[in-house]
Design goal:
With 270 residues, the protein is α/β, with parallel strands linked by helices. It has eleven helices and six strands. 46% of the residues lie in helices and 11% in strands. The structure holds adenosine-5'-triphosphate.
Length: 270
C-alpha cells in the first residue's frame, strides 16, 4: 500500500532547460527550493526563514510536475511523489498514517523533495456534508499541516504541492509556515509555445521549413503537454507517409486531427 501511494521514483532527468516559456516560475522555484538547500547560510545571515512549502497552481499540463522534478534533479535531491487523489481514493483510514510515512521517508533520504500532486484532493474547502469520508480527508490534511508545523531543520526537505483548482483550496494550508510560497504556472503565451515546440522537436528529424513561430500562432490555448502531443502526432503523419523527415504539412494535419478530436479548450485525450 505504501509503495503505491508514494513513490521514491527514479531520479528525475528533467532539467531547467527542458522547461519552456515559464522562466520566471523556474527562477522562483529555484529561489524557494534550491537556494535553501544549497546555500542555507544565506538565510541565516539575512535573518529570514526560507519558505516552508511551495504551491504551484495553474491549468493542467503546464509543467508543474516537470518543474518539481527538475529542481530535484538539479539539486540531487531524492524525489518523493504522492498524489492527493490516490491517498483519498484508495486508503480510507490510512491517509494520516501515509502522510507520516511520507515525511519519515523524506527524513531517511535527505536531501529530499516531497511532491504532492493534486493537493486539492486532501485540502479542499470543507463541504456542507459531514460524511465519514470528509472527516477522513480532513484528518489527512491535519496530519500534513502538523508535519509541516513541526518542521525544524529547514532546507534539507522541501515540500512542493500542485493543484489545478486553486480556488477550491482550504486557505488554512496557505498560512505562513505552511504553503507560504505561491507560484502560478499559467498557460503558455505565444512566445512560450514557440519555445516549448522547439524543446519537444529537439530530437525530431525536422524539415528546415518548419516554422515554430507560425505554429505557435496557430496553437492558442494549447498547454505544454498538448504541444508535446502535437509534435508526436506530426511525427506519426510523417511515418504514415513513409517519410523520416517531418514537414510543415504533418503539423498542419496533426492540428486538424486535434481539432476534430477535441472541442477547443478541452484537453487532448492521449
Ligand atoms: P497536471 O496539472 O495535469 O499534473 P502539470 O502542470 O504537472 O500537469 P506536467 O506533468 O509537468 O504538467 O507536464 C506534462 C508534460 O508536458 C511534461 O512532461 C512535458 O513533456 C510537457 N510540458 C508541459 N509544460 C511544459 C513546458 N512549460 N515546457 C516543456 N514541456 C512542457
Amino acid at each position: 500500500a505504501r509503495a503505491q501511494a508514494m513513490q521514491v521514483t527514479e531520479q528525475p532527468t528533467a532539467e531547467y532547460g527542458d522547461i519552456g516559456g515559464i522562466d520566471e516560475q523556474v527562477q522562483e522555484v529555484r529561489e524557494a527550493v534550491e537556494d535553501p538547500l544549497t546555500n542555507p547560510e544565506q538565510f541565516v545571515e539575512v535573518g529570514i526563514e526560507p519558505p516552508t512549502g511551495v504551491l504551484l497552481h495553474g491549468p493542467p499540463g503546464t509543467g508543474k510536475t516537470m518543474l518539481a522534478k527538475a529542481v530535484a534533479n538539479e539539486t540531487d535531491a531524492t524525489f518523493i511523489k504522492m498524489a492527493g487523489s490516490e491517498l483519498v481514493q484508495k486508503f480510507i483510514g490510512e491517509g494520516a498514517r501515509l502522510v507520516r510515512d511520507l515525511f519519515e521517508l523524506a527524513a531517511e533520504n535527505e536531501p529530499a523533495i516531497i511532491f504532492i500532486d493534486e493537493i486539492d484532493a486532501i485540502a479542499s474547502k470543507r463541504t456542507e456534508s459531514k460524511t465519514s469520508g470528509d472527516a477522513e480527508v480532513q484528518r489527512t490534511m491535519m496530519q500534513l499541516l502538523s508535519e509541516m508545523d513541526g518542521f525544524e531543520a529547514r532546507g534539507d526537505i522541501s515540500i512542493i504541492a500542485a493543484t489545478n483548482r486553486f480556488d477550491m483550496l482550504d486557505r488554512a494550508i496557505l498560512r505562513p509556515g505552511r504553503f507560504d510560497r505561491l507560484i502560478e504556472v499559467p498557460e503558455p503565451t505565444v512566445e512560450g509555445r514557440e519555445k516549448i515546440l522547439a524543446i519537444h522537436t529537439r530530437d525530431m528529424n525536422l524539415a528546415d521549413e518548419v516554422d515554430f513561430a507560425d505554429l505557435a500562432g496557430k496553437t492558442e490555448g494549447f498547454s505544454g503537454a498538448e504541444l508535446e502531443s502535437l509534435c508526436t502526432e506530426a511525427g506519426m503523419f510523417a511515418i504514415r507517409d513513409e517519410r523520416t523527415e517531418v514537414h510543415t504539412e504533418d503539423f498542419e494535419e496533426a492540428l486538424e486531427k486535434i481539432d476534430r478530436d477535441d472541442s477547443p479548450g478541452t484537453p487532448i485525450a492521449f
